[in-house]
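Input chain follows. Return structure tokens only.
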Amino acid sequence: MSQESSKPDQRIENLELSAGYAERHIEVLSAEIAQLNKAMSSLLSRIDRLESRIVEINDKVGETPPMVPPPHSAGPDVPRDPL
């Protein structure tokens, strides 16, 4: 009868051990997911800033640059600083 009672005890012990390993894996994976979410949030913020910067640059591309004489052409009657 000791063999019959040891088989269920062994099975219960194996199940408890397996559940413990599964619980540990869940904790590790949850921590990894939290870290990935934090990294993704940071990357999305950076992408938003880059998109804003690209829009600013694209808006400036259409503008005509101010007329500034080259520095070597400035004579006594031409101001060096156009502004």
